[in-house]
Queue: 3 jobs
Job 1
Amino acid sequence: MSEITQLSLTRIWVTTKHINHKCTQMNTDILNNKESFQILEIKDLYVNYGGIEALQNINLYINNGEVVTLIGANGAGKTTTLRAISKIVNPRQGKIMYSGRNITRRQAHEVVQLGIAHCPEGRRVLARQTVLDNLLLGAYIRSNQTEVRNDIQQQFEMFPRLAQRRHQLAGTLSGGEQQMLAIARALMSKPKLLLLDEPSLGLAPTIVREIFSIIQNLRARGVTILLVEQNANLALQIADRGYVLEAGCITLSGAASELITDERVKKAYLG
Ligand code: ATP
């Protein structure tokens, strides 16, 4: 597997406004004028499913080391945004830049090799395979088996419940344990950018807290995270910045600390 050893990161000045001409997009970004590195930049992205326009003129960026959250109602286009980045779907128009490379037309396995891992909504663990086999599957692009074994050990340290259940079939794990396995499996490809889709979905509050503390732990280890989450309150509490998606358009973006107090966000997503 060829992993990026040196990121050719694009040095940019974060622009003060991101105006989406088709969808009105307001920005309350406090990072204005801060010099930073972008690990991901999406420009004017459109995605269609047949005749359905799921994403329209999406513009977003993620700085290296950030946790950025995408919030929005059901069907707003959050999952589609992640699928476009991990190349599960192909954009109709627009550009996706990752670490200075244009990945718009790359294949799914290529973007994994470049350092992007997608932890999908609904966990999607292989139910009839053991925890260990699921983890090995996550490392399928890697050839150094010693490193893979060491990393499995690391996952077991981070997720002790998985260590205790390493020979258990994934389908017999609880929902929270399956979510942990899905995250651990994604981490087995050694991603620089982790796309996390609805990690709290259907989980009890104590497990949700555990999962969110793991996300914070990952960020402290230097993993950049794009988090899709229906629990906007929790997501905005741990994120640096956020984007609000409505009917396939970004309508608002900015620092999470500002979005969480924004009256429009409060009314629509924070109950
Ligand atoms: P949710 O929070 O319910 O998961 P979402 O914000 O992630 O929603 P998407 O799953 O990205 O939204 O869906 C965006 C739009 O694209 C929706 O109108 C949805 O019906 C449509 N869509 C998603 N996947 C497909 C598909 N495979 N075929 C056709 N339409 C699709």
Job 2
Amino acid sequence: ALSCGIVGLPNVGKSTLFNAITQAGAESANYPFCTIDPNVGVVEVPDERLVKLTELVVPNRTVPTAFEFVDIAGLVAGASKGEGLGNKFLANIREVDAIVHVVRCFVDENITHVAGKVDPLGDIQTINLELILADIDSVDRRIDRSRKNMKGGNKQYAQEVEVLERLKEALYNDQPARSVELSDDERLLIRDLHLLTMKPVLYAANVNETEAANSDDNPYVKIVREFAAEEGAVVVPISAKVESEIAELEGEDKAMFLEELGLTQSGLDRLINAAYKLLGLYTYFTAGVQEVRAWTIRKGMKAPQAAGVIHTDFERGFIRAEVVSYDDLVAAGSMNAAKEKGQLRLEGKEYVVQDGDVMHFRFNV
Ligand code: GDP
């Protein structure tokens, strides 16, 4: 399953945010693929389209799609040199697909800051430096190996060394690996290095309860936004404390609490949506009377692979798919109406699934 790692310095609010995530609680029976681990929380992806499809089809049940958040505690200055539980945590980051970097933007005299004062830019740089140092280590080791292999006259290694040198230069200049422009082929050459700074990042700016509704008045959030803009990264202001309170509520109570705070959507929902986007994911739907359900695919997946997300048998025995786009279906008002308008398409093995497709698969068993 796809996952997002939560990183940040100690005492910035990671555990509080992670607790909110696990409190919000996905129905785990629906997601058998998810890991059972105290450091992993499964989140359901809020999606307006699923609500609309449920109204349209009136199924027995509705199941959102989900992905995992991993709590990666313990990253401190010096981690890349084995400080704290350094190496273990860096290894955990290696396994996630994207990073949510929590930054402390709240002031509270009672909560110690590891660097002595609230300093979001300094904090971001401390973490990023550890990730960069770990990557330098990986790249240096790989360059040595590839140089040796190059002596055999294999062209692939020459190209590999060239790519690694470019990455090395960026890293030595404090730039993340993702800032280096690479072709798809070049990316493939170094994929198995699992560079930490190659992973997409979003910054979660943790603000005080009282600032939840107008977080952009917080001067620290502005600083984080300016930094992130240079990297082209997304910032999600959030109050981890508020989220942990919201997560204990449901339905009406939740709506009322959000209204009192002057919010239209919980910060957690905004964070989940932003992380989903960061992972480069698409959603398609199945809409039967038994179940209306959202499924996650990577951009560019073809119909059989997308079917395989439901069950490997669907991929193996794939014959074709009946497809209608979400917009067409909603405009038509029902599956039959869409069919009459000729909006229900038959697609084959080469069809690239689009975000919002409503699919029905035909397959051999
Ligand atoms: P972690 O070390 O990054 O996991 O940080 P924690 O989530 O354990 O939070 C450290 C302390 O900061 C705890 O006492 C939290 O209650 C507190 N804290 C977290 N978020 C906020 C916040 O938005 N405002 C205030 N005042 N305290 C917070």
Job 3
Amino acid sequence: GILIVATKNKGKVREFQHAFAPLGLTVKSMYDYPDLPDVVEDGATFAENAFKKSRAVGDALGLPVLADDSGLCVEALDGSPGVYSARYAGEAADDEANNLKLMSELERLKQGEDTGQPLLSPARFVCALSLYDPADGREWTAEGTVEGWITSEPAGAGGFGYDPLFYLPEYEKTMAELTLEEKQSISHRGTALRRLTEKLAAAQSG
Ligand code: ITT
């Protein structure tokens, strides 16, 4: 079967493909439906934005759709960039521009004082998933988070987005240094996916 995910983020697509392949599901993304209008992500929360995406695409296609809204919340920045993570450095910002902006904001906070410490602030990744079925109008939701530190020493070529800056003390690695498998086992997205799957399984058997 196929599973439609309302995303244009290739990093997310790769992770969903990896997660759903064992279930025999092929993931389709917005690259497979290029004519759909863009969804305005102006919600106040990750959950709201995820629902905006799953509902808009689900209603347009008349098929069940999964959406992911996620981001990085940095303690020293009072939770920023949060729901603005994708456009932290501006509307058309890419991962590199967003990472540079994050580093410069945190360096600016140190106000010239160099502590020599690479770990700049505690942070957490958040992922909100929304699965919407236009047939009955029902929405299924789940969230996941993972805690780490923003490092001034980016490392790793795996993952996407802020992963090279997200240091996990227990692994002594950044998220970008983990394999897809390892990332999935601890990430905000992996946890949210396991929670969503559990909810769906419980509803099926109940
Ligand atoms: P779609 O809305 O099309 O799914 P997007 O990239 O715009 O794609 P979001 O609005 O959810 O997605 O923004 C997520 C932001 O958080 C974006 O900057 C990502 O790079 C970052 N992010 C989300 N999950 C991440 C992860 O697992 N690792 C690193 N960065 C992540």
